[in-house]
# Entry
Amino acid sequence: MSAVVLGVGDFGANNKPGGIVKTYALGSCVAVILLDPRTRTVGMVHVALPESRINPAKVAERPGYFADTGIPALLKEMAKLGCDPRGRGMVVKLAGGAKIMDPNDTFNIGKRNELAIKKVLWAHGMGAVAEDLGGNFSRTVAVSVDTGEITLSSPGRSNWTI
Amino acid sequence: MNKHIDRDSILKAIRQVPLLSPSASRLLELSANPDHDLGEIVAIVKCDAALTAHVLRVVNSAAFGLLSRVDSIDRAVAYLGERLIVGIALGDNAGELFNKPLGGYDGARGDLWRHDLLTAMAARYVSSKAKVELNPGLAFTGGILHDIGKGILSDYLHNSAPQLLENLQRQAIANYLEGEKNILGIDHAEAGFEVAKTWKLPDALQMIIRYHHAPQDAPEEFRPIIYAVHIGDIVAMMGGYGTGSDTLQYKLDGNYTQYFDLSSDALAMVLLETEEEFRRVEASLTDGKEN
# Structure
């Protein structure tokens, strides 16, 4: 089985029958999952922070770290596998973005990630059809290339799908 | 389940935790003291043959990518830095406690160690943002040790995770600590504090372990450093480095603003920098083990 496993700030795609794309333990990070039905390709980027402006130097090394650079990087990667470079026809799903209650709001990076991602998707004319965001738990996400089904897991909980 | 019996057997288990080696104890003591120099660290490492061997293995591992071999402890300590030396010494000594799979928390082997290391790095980084002067070495060591109690409690928590999470969901309990205490009569902060007393750790480290989820309850003199570790702990969990079912099941104490200037951007930088440092160090420690 072909497995593409992504760390924090990584992006990647898989179109091999029987394959999966997986990322472990999203806390406040958000996985943006792009499914292309035409080419049967699954792409994912593990976004850690909303905006690349806080450290532009990091972008060259790891564009997937930030929402504003991660989604374009993923689209480019998927285009190499024959997908539309502007993401036309793709199905978007989101998972992660756990919430930290902070009266000062500084720690709610999960929510800021979500908003930044939705803004970038909007600019590309894309929108999520399913999402599993927020809450106060971490998520491991695995996407099947064959079915596009997304399985989520978290310690101490039963698996669920979106 | 009789929680008094559990509490007693847990306290008994804590008294049987292997003691730290003299060099590890001494390194922890030094790191808690702001007035020390690298020479003192070097002197301790040199007197411990096993530690010397391990330190040299790590510094010469591929992850550090040094051009020439390092054979002297003075240079190795200078390259690795005091914090990593403390980490190596603790791993050698209390490795069993740090490295066991946290079955009671539905966590895997290595989760606790990774969480501790990331907490330590974040706590050190955050300590530089404090309004008062903090000892970054102490913040780091406190981060490494803060969850030591989980290594003990995990064995007693058997399959409790789903029930505890459900109680949290229903808001029948406020956080995971309360759940631990309901089941066992003791929570991981108190259990860790008992270990710290057994190990005769410096007061500041004892207080960090005991109050890392409730910094406002700590004696005032220790509060700022405890908040640094409290924040580091939350940052590690946000970054996806938790210890299993209890990940993110604790409240952030918003009063950290009394002691820290942390904007959203500054916090984003804490996440970014610590994650980067973590990747580097984790690679070097794994390399060192395989060599």
User: Anything to note?
Assistant: Chain A has one domain: 3-161. Helices of chain A lie at 56-61, 67-79, 109-123. Residues 3-161 of chain A form a domain with the 60s Ribosomal Protein L30; Chain: A; fold (CATH 3.30.1330.200).
